[in-house]
Amino acid sequence: MSTRITLTLIGLTLLTSCASIENRAPPVDDLFLSEVKVSASEVDKLREGHRIYMNFCTDCHAPRQVDKITANNWKEHIPKMFKKAELYPEEIELVTYYIKTAASINQKLIAKRP
């Protein structure tokens, strides 16, 4: 009986963490794109920025909720993290574009996600 409860709790934890990641760093999916008006090349940039964010920024910490990143973070902390992650200027531009775009629509996305 305890094994079944443990497995159920693990399953619930995994489901909750997936939803939480979508709320923190929303994927550039159809719902995301329904909230922004961008060209096909901009969609590619947003997707690449999301990929960089999820692959590099989460090496040191869990994904931060994009709409909770403050102006102070952008001035003081984010440049240090970009340097620590050894990102190229082009990658910094892409991840910055993704974070700022996602931040502007994230609360709408959270409200619409199941």
What does this structure look like?
With 114 residues, the protein is mainly α. It has one domain (2-112). The chain has helices at residues 2-24, 30-35, 40-56, 71-84, 89-112. Helix 3 crosses helix 5. The chain is globular and about 50 Å long. The two termini are 31 Å apart. The model is unreliable at 9-18 (pLDDT under 50).
Number of helices: 5
Number of strand elements? 0
* First and last CA, distance: 31 Å
Largest sheet, described in full?
Answer: none
Task: Give the helices and strands as they follow along the chain.
Answer: HHHHH
What's the oligomerization state?
single chain
Low-confidence regions:
9-18
Question: Roughly how many Å is the radius of gyration?
Answer: 16 Å
Mean pLDDT: 84
C-alpha geometry = globular
Structural domain count: 1
* Fraction of residues in β-strands: under 5%
Q: Helix fraction? A: over 70%
**What structural class should be given to the helix and strand makeup?**
mainly alpha
